[in-house]
Specification:
Blueprint (H helix, E strand, L loop, with lengths): L2 H29 L4 H5 L6 H4 L1 H11 L5 H13 L15 H36 L4 H15 L2 H15 L18 H38 L3 H8 L4 H13 L1 H14 L4 H6 L5 H11 L2 H29 L1 H5 L1
Helix pairs in contact: 1-5, 1-15, 6-7, 6-9, 6-12, 6-15, 7-9, 8-9, 9-11, 9-12, 10-11, 12-15, 14-15
Length: 330
């Protein structure tokens, strides 16, 4: 396969997908019931808050008095310029991107670290479980990971807080940093952040590790009976050599897909975990913007979150070319 042609076609698909996401993001908020101006100017308000004249001025300023097609073109133009609108209730008058940017950094640290840890644990457990399929080790790992996967993340968060932060008092109950964080040296600041990340990351790992462990286990289950695995055993290779040289390279592709999906979700944050542990990330911001009925801010958050999934899947498709020779030769 011609690499340049593949990359150009993939870029075209990404751009087309982003356009449809932008269109869907626009029309969803257009068909929502209610009037955005009523969030600021409720019916029956005082003359200072709810005058009809001010409402008409807001309608004209936001372009809500224009035809739908005109508003859509304006939306696309602003989107192309990186203008996601202005917060109207959560932080009135502040650009949506100025509100999102610091929260996005927190989410990338929290959910990014949690995803890496969860994926590593899932690969290790899936490797052991798949190689020892049907044995007691496989049953224990499978049942334990599925039990954690079936538990609501808010319940796991509260259980960990109760036992490890209240009863034993080993970890902090909530928050991203300790008091006096700004006076610490860089190494102490890093350790303090990791200390506060422990329980949220553990919650994420418990409730999501089954995704990776079961994916790799099932993939290994399909690979191990193949003829080339029997040949590798007949050649006298050790179990570790059979696993590393022959089984894992062919079983890793579904794991790459699962990792791409999860890394795409990194941008959207973990709403429940961020709310329970009071992490000021994008998930917590989504909750706050929804409660405040801040339509421009919600629209920007949803677009960025879906864009992260699209980009992550595009990267996984490119990685497939290097991981699977059959894709390159197709």
């Amino acid at each position: 396969m011609n690499l340049r042609r593949f990359l150009l076609r993939k870029a075209a698909y990404v751009l087309l997908t982003v356009f449809f996401i932008a269109a869907l993001n626009f029309f969803i908020f257009q068909i929502l019931p209610g009037d955005p101006t009523r969030v600021l100017l409720p019916r029956g308000g005082t003359s200072q808050m709810g005058s009809e004249t001010l409402r008409q001025e807001l309608l004209h300023e936001w372009g809500l008095d224009q035809p739908l097609t005109t508003r859509f073109l304006i939306y696309l133009r602003n989107l192309f310029q990186g203008n996601f609108g202005t917060s109207i209730t959560y932080r009135p008058g502040i650009s949506a991107m100025d509100v999102i940017a610091p929260r996005l950094t927190t989410t990338l640290v929290l959910v990014g670290v949690a995803t890496v840890v969860t994926m590593w644990m899932g690969v290790v457990l899936g490797r052991v479980s798949g190689w020892r399929r049907g044995r007691r080790t496989d049953v224990i790992i499978t049942m334990t990971s599925l039990f954690g996967y079936s538990m609501p993340s808010f319940w796991v968060s509260l259980v960990l807080i109760f036992f490890l932060a209240v009863e034993v008092n080993v970890f902090p109950v909530h928050g991203e940093t300790s008091l006096g964080y700004g006076t610490l040296d860089p190494v102490s600041q890093l350790l303090d952040r990791l200390y506060h990340l422990a329980l949220p990351v553990l919650t994420f790992a418990i409730t999501n590790v089954a995704w990776f462990s079961m994916t790799l286990r099932n993939s290994l289950t399909d690979v191990l009976p193949e003829d080339y695995m029997l040949t590798a055993a007949a050649k006298g290779l050790t179990e570790d050599q059979q696993l590393r040289r022959h089984a894992l390279p062919n079983a890793r592709l579904p794991v790459v897909t699962a990792a791409a999906i999860y890394f795409g979700w990194v941008v959207s944050g973990a709403i429940v975990i961020e709310v329970v542990f009071d992490f000021q990330g994008l998930g917590k911001l989504t909750w706050d913007a929804t409660r405040a009925l801040d339509f421009p801010l919600m629209s920007a958050i949803f677009f960025i979150a879906t864009l992260g999934v699209v980009v992550a899947n595009a990267i996984s498709d490119i990685l497939y070319m290097y991981l699977d020779p059959r894709v390159r030769e197709a």
